[in-house]
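Practice problem: predict the structure.
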Amino acid sequence: MLFYLALFFAFIYFKIARVYKKEEKSNLNMLVQNVIVLAAVIALFVYGFMHHTWYVILIVSYLFFILASLIVSAVQLGIFIDGKPFIKLSHFYKLLAFLGMFIAFIDVYLWGI
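Answer:
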């Protein structure tokens, strides 16, 4: 179950990072963070293909990709309560580092390092 949670968060992370790259100015810190999370996600997929059936990983990855896109698109369009935005993209940008760290820690836990 922890593997699938990390996989979902990985798709959320990279969807938010893609939006961040399009809307904000790129910097070296963000590039380094994305490379570290990419290495963790590659290790996560290797773990998944070694311990689960390959077709389940592909189907779940496709579903998580669609779900992550829908969630971030909904936030981009805006979720309003009483005329004020409830969740902004800036909230997601602030949580991006913690989300990447969470993915990396789950990956380390799964591999038992």
